[in-house]
Amino acid sequence: MLSQFFDHSQANGSVTMNELEEVRLISLTPRAEETMAYCARVSNPDNQDNPQVAGLLKYCIKHGHWSVFEQANMVLEINTCRAIAPQILRHRSFSFQEFSQRYARATHFVAHQARRQDQKNRQNSIDDLDSATQAWFLSAQSEIWELAHARYSEALERGIAKESARALLPLSTATRLYMNGTVRSWIHYIQLRSGVETQLEHRRIALRCRDIFKENLKEVAAALGW
Q1: pLDDT tens digits for 41-82?
Q2: What's the predicted TM-score (pTM) here?
Q3: CA angle, 192 then 198 then 199, to 5°
Q4: What is the pLDDT of residue 20?
């Protein structure tokens, strides 16, 4: 994996690597595609119960009738870090719940791959750094986390509130989001964030969202060419 979950063990102070499932489905409007098609036929009540929905949904996408896709919702759980979460939270058509470091103790961090800055495109990075640089960057992240987490733990032991102590934590600190949006919002998010202009770690999340979308909204996904 390009980003990995690290579990800090208070027993021995070591850092161990565990796989992180970045995205999973929490809920989806029951019979979502049928519901959207039913609502789309509001002006044709005699045909609202028509079980054939694929052609209608494809027609709505082709002609930009996007309000139809606001009639169903999907909630996904996203596990990432504080460096990526703000990029996701910018999508204001969604509703969010996020893990709060004010109320709960931070225990993990997400390590990232080192990539070279593209000098011609600030939105791009290039995966061509040598193994020694990669190893140094991974070691540096672990070192920073060990120090930050030690000071963070000490702050809590001294009675400092979590809302204050969290200032000691790096952007690599893990977080969890619940992201709730209409099918229309998910279409826009996935189309935008699965592009090469998006940071790789975020793009991988968007692609996983697309996989879940395809698994559960097959007719819409097919109409979108996914």
Answers
A1: 999 999 999 999 999 999 999 999 999 999 999 999 999 999
A2: 0.88
A3: 155
A4: 56
Report d(CA 156, CA 60) in Å as an integer.
54
Q: DSSP assignment of 45-69, as one string?
A: GGGTT-S--HHHHHHHHHTT-GGGG
Neighbours of 194 (CB within 10 A): 19
The CATH number of 109-116+126-172 is: 1.20.5.3070
Phi, psi of 62 (to 5 degrees): -60, -35
Which CATH architecture describes the domain 19-101+176-225? Answer: 2-Layer Sandwich (3.30)
The pLDDT of residue 131 = 95
Give residue limits of the domains in the chain: 19-101+176-225, 109-116+126-172
Please give the pLDDT value at position 21: 54
Spatial contact of 220 and 69, defined as CB atoms under 8 Å apart? yes
Tokens representing 145?
A: 């986390």
**Tokens 């919002």 -> residue:** 185
- In the chain, which ranges are E strands? 3-8, 15-18, 23-28, 73-81, 95-98, 108-112, 116-117, 125-126, 174-182
Q: Which helix (H) or strand (E) holds 6?
A: strand 3-8
Q: What are the residue numbers of the active site?
A: 193
Task: Encode pLDDT of 110-166 as tens digits.
Answer: 998 999 998 888 888 889 999 999 999 999 999 999 999 999 999 999 999 999 999
